Each structure stands twice: as structure tokens, then as C-alpha cells.
Amino acid sequence: MLKIEVFPASYGDSFLVTCMGKENTYLLIDMGFMSTYSNSIKEKLIEINNNGESLSLIIFTHVDDDHISGGIKFFSENGQSEKTNIIKVENVWYNSFRHLQFDKQKSGLLDNEIQKTEHKKNEFILEDITNKGRPKEQGYKTIDSIGVSKGSTLASLLYYYKYSDVWNSHFSSNAVTVERLHDNSNSCFRKIALNEDVKITILSPDTDKLQALDDLWREKLVSEGFRGKISSDKLMDDAFEVYFANIHGSNPRNRKLYNVSSDNDIMRTANEPFEPDSTTVNGSSIAFILEFEEKRVLFLADSHTDIIIGKLKEIAEKEKVEKVFFNAVKVSHHGSKHNTSIELLELIDTDKYIFSTNGRGKGFTHPDIETIFRIISVNRDRYKTLIFNYKPIHIIKIIDNEELKEKYNFSIEITNDLSEGTEGFIATVTL
């Protein structure tokens, strides 16, 4: 059995996957906010540890705060990698600045005296960015904190508590990318085996997506007056992480009100021109296929559609199928209309779509109705269940009627009956 527990992570992501085979394999995918960890995740990890088990892998899909800040609280409490307080972590995947394997040593020609002056100035710039701190969780009055002496970023805590040996170890301590998994002997992607039963295939990011993130960081440094060598030391990692935790994308977030009195209304909305996500941070997301025995789950993080479509087409060609089957799909970017296209959905065969969000972030309301209409209108012969870990009132008002559900062959599963913006219960999806 494969069990996915969807933590109530506000408008963020956090999933605990349990693969129950000869022995249990546990994967933690993102950790939401610090409140997510304190209110939900911590108790689960203590329970696993009390059973004499460990976490096989923690994946932090990208640097956005709604995916990693719970990890900051966790590692600050968990302690040294060899002497943990809560649970042993066997592997960590997370792309920090130093894992962007590109030309970070590029610099202008500066003589020694200028280098000394610029070095001090550069340190001040990085410290100023880091000291801005992490953003507050929207709608949360009390914010957990950690000891500043240990660091306030995920990267600094992984260094401080000596997790370097298990950090991106499947990638020789380099960046987690598609290219590092490619088997040059044929066209398919090599699978990372966590053990005999559990395998992972990376679909995103590729070098281009990570290069774009590296370039955006360089632009920020130049705008702040940074000169000389771009180092990959701890201070640079910290400034990089804090900066990207505080910036937000520029995709339009206008929410329309739709009349769904007829099929034409739904189909017209579903087929409106697709505007892809243009945010660089989301493009750096680690998206992957998790396989356990005969089961496959697609975890899309906040990934861009273009790279996922390309990889799924390769898999479909290799398997000689038109659509790639999954037992469940975690919908990209909390159901944003910019991350789920008709073209993507037409490559997927599944009956379970999982949405993780309370609907209330900064300047947006997820999921978008366009995403819902696209999902229910594609592959109408396939019965589908839409699984929400919070009650999305703005969506339910539109689609929760029996005639529509029968016509479009779908059902709605809400794992708690609470309103948007409130704490939810842990959703469990069993496959």
C-alpha cells in the first residue's frame, strides 16, 4: 500500500508518503510553514521515530517559503545528523545557491587592494539582504522562531548540523537536475532507487531552469552594487535563500466570476488561451514520478508545464502509449491556471487530482477555476476525483452540484469541512 498524507500547510505544500512494503519507506516532500511543522508534521515524525524507523528522504522542491520554512524549524530542533532529537534523515534534496553548477567564479579584473574593499562591501550587501528576514505567513498571528545563533535559513542549518554528507548525495552533492539522471545509452531516464521497492524519476528542473534562477540572483547582486567574484560560501547561500523567500511572481492573479449554466461556459473557460507561469523560482521546482511496486504518483511541486510536457512525451513514447498512467497527481502550484494546461492534461491518465492549499496566499486565490474546468473537461470518459485538503469555497460554489458532476464524470473529496483560511486536518490518500 502507498499512503499520501497531505498536511494542512496553509497556502503551502507538505506531504508525507509512506510506502508499505517489506519495510516502510518514508518520504517527506516539502514542509510548508513553521506552523505546519509545529502543528502537524512534528507529531508524525516522532511517531515514526518511536517505531524505530527513519525518513528515507526529504525533498524541498524549491526555495519558496511556503515549501521550506517548516524545514527550518525542524532542523533547528532535530540537531546533529548523527545524534538527532526527533528523527534520523537519511537523505535531503534541496538546491541552494552553491548547488547551481554554473560559472559562479566569473568576475571582473580587480587588483588586490580593490578586491579587499569590494569584499567588505559585498559582505555588507549579503548581510543586508539576509537581515531582512523571512516573510510572515499570511493570516498567521504568531510566528515560530529559532535560535539566531544557529542560523535562520535551511542551507545554514544543514551546514551547522552537518548534513552535508546526505545533502543531494544521489547527485554527488551537485544540483538536483534532470540531466544528472539521464542515461546516455538510451532515451529513457534513469531512476533513482531509494531501496529495492521505491524509485524516483526526476522531470524538473533542467539546467536551463536553474540557470535562469542563477541569472536572476546575479541581476539582484549587480543592482545592489556587488562587484567581483560571486562566491558560494554560507553567507551567499543565506542571502540567496532569504531573497527568494521574499519575492513574488508577476503572473496576473485576476479572478473572474463565471456562469456555468451550460457546457459551452465550461468549455469556453477551459480553452481560454493558456498563459504559462513565468516565475523563475517556480521553474526551478523539483518535480518527479514516485514509483512503488506497481503504483506511480506524479508530484509536480510548482513546476512549469513546458518541461513536464516534454518529459511526459518521452515517457509516453518509450512506453508506447498516448497517455502516461498515474495512480494520483499532485497538481502544480496549488491549482494555478498558469501551471496546468490542456496539453499537459491530455498526456496524463489518472483518476485522482490532489490540491494542497487553503486558498489564501499573497495576492492570489488558489485553485483557479480555469484549472478545475480543464481537469474535468479533459478525458471525460475517465472518472476523476478532485481531492482538496481545505474547503475551497470559491470553487465549491461553482462545481458542487450533482448534475454537473454526473455530466463531467467527477466527484469532490474534501478532507475537512472547514472554510478557507482556517486550519485543516491531515488528508490521507491511500493507493
Structure, described:
This protein has 431 residues and is α/β, with parallel strands linked by helices. It has one domain: 4-Layer Sandwich (Metallo-beta-lactamase, Chain A), CATH 3.60.15. It contains 13 helices and 18 strands. Strands 8-9-10-11-13-15-16-17 form an 8-stranded mixed sheet. A hairpin with a 3-residue loop joins strand 2 (14-20) and strand 3. Helix 1 packs across helix 2 and helix 3 packs across helix 6. It is globular. It starts with a strand and ends with a strand. Residues 105-111, 182-187 and 417-422 have low confidence and may be disordered.
Q: What's the short version?
A:
The protein has helices at residues 34-50, 65-78, 112-130, 154-160, 207-223, 234-246, 263-270, 280-283, 305-319, 342-345, 369-377, 393-399, 402-408; strands spanning 2-6, 14-20, 24-31, 57-59, 79-80, 83-84, 92-93, 192-193, 198-204, 287-292, 295-299, 324-325, 328-330, 348-349, 352-355, 384-388, 410-414, 427-430.
Which descriptors would you attach to this protein?
6-stranded mixed sheet, 13 helices, Metallo-beta-lactamase, Chain A, about 15% strand, about 425 residues, alpha/beta
| β-strand amount | 15-25%
CATH homologous superfamily grouping: Ribonuclease Z/Hydroxyacylglutathione hydrolase-like
Sheet with the most strands? 8 strands, mixed
Quaternary structure type: single chain
Gyration radius, rounded: 22 Å
Structural class call reads alpha/beta
Q: Report the principal-axis shape.
A: globular
Look at the structure and give the CATH class: Alpha Beta
Helix count equals 13
What is the averaged pLDDT score?
Answer: 86
Q: Low-confidence stretches at least 5 residues in length (pLDDT < 50)?
A: 105-111, 182-187, 417-422
If classified by CATH, what would the architecture be?
4-Layer Sandwich
Helix coverage percent of residues? 25-40%
Which fold name is given in CATH as the topology? Answer: Metallo-beta-lactamase, Chain A
The separation of the N and C termini measures 6 Å
Tally of structural domains: 1
